[in-house]
Specification:
Length: 179
Amino acid sequence: MPPKKSADKRPDPPCMVCNPDFAKPGDYCPLHLNQLEHLDLQCESLFRFQRISRGSGHESYNIFLQNDADPCGRVLVAETDLENLFITILISENVNLDTTIPEYEFFKIVRTFGEQLQIRIRQEIVYSWYGNARACIEVYRIIPEQPQHWDIESRADYAAAEDEIPDPHFPQGNKNSIH
């Protein structure tokens, strides 16, 4: 009979949370990996998009922050060619994209609202609608007020309306008169 081994003392697997001495970034034990994956799923709904327009080579979305009924921004997508997109994000000044998501600190991860928004845009807009496209993204902060809406009539409608309005520089009657 072989001699009995003393209690099997294997070191705990490297984990950024419970055994950080031997862990590298991204190493987690099964328990903490499961918790991190659950947190990632929760944070997927931090931002949601609602498409408001789509046309040939362009589309736009309202951005909503989790549980908000009013949009906090807009995403404008322009297809510059089949494999390249230009995306403009207009985000309310009330949303600080540099703010860290505190729940990730437990896992020794720094993740910001901006990174989470970028992940959502990558997954839901770029990869799901455009496949293998590349995207250049510009982010602008806007003040939280309703946008102004302007309608510009066709050139023919504008000319017809202009003919109906008297010119203030000429008296009624013959416009070519010098008297």
